[in-house]
Amino acid sequence: EARSQQTPSFSVVVAIDFGTTSSGYAFSFTSDPEAIHMMRKWEGGDPGVANQKTPTSLLLTPEGTFHSFGYTARDYYHDLDPEEAREWLYFEKFKMKIHSTSDLTMKTELEAVNGKKMPALEVFAHALRFLKEHAVQELKDQCPSLPERDAIRWVLTVPAIWKQPAKQFMREAAY
C-alpha cells in the first residue's frame, strides 16, 4: 500500500550532542536531508585546529548568571586572578554526574570547582540554552528566510545506558 508523503511542519532538524568532555551540534534541512551540516568552528580552542565541538564547560558569574560556555568559559576562567576565580562558578565534565547520582531528582545539585553548589537542572539548562542559541544564530546566518517559530525540530542525544530518571532530567533541562 502506497503511503502519501506528509510534508513535515519543520524545515530543519538540529541534533545537539551534549557530551561528557565536549559538546556540539549538527543540522540538516528537510529539503535536503542527506546534507548534514556540522557546526561552525568554535571561538577559542587551539590555534590552527578546526573544532567541531567545544568543551562541556560552563562559567557562571559570582551571582550565578550565565557568562560563557565551551572554550570561552574555559579560557576566561583560567585567565582570572586566582583570588577572583574563587567567586566564579565553573563547571566542567558535569554530564555524567546525573548518570552516576543514584538518587537523582529535579532538585539534585552540582558542585562548581570552587565548592559552591547550584541546582543541576539550572546548570544543564544554561548549557543547553547556549547550544540552542548558537545553533539558531548559525541557521539565521545561513538561511535568513527561516521562520522564527516552529521551523526547527530539536534532537538531544542521551546515552542508551542511562536510566529513565536521567533521561527525564535531560528532557526537563531542555524544556
Automatic annotation (TrEMBL):
Classification via SUPFAM superfamilies: Actin-like ATPase domain (SSF53067)
Keywords: Stress response
Entry keyword annotation includes Lipid metabolism: no
InterPro entries: ATPase_NBD
PANTHER family: ALPHA KINASE/ELONGATION FACTOR 2 KINASE, HEAT SHOCK 70 KDA PROTEIN 12B
Name under which the protein is recorded: Heat shock 70 kDa protein 12B
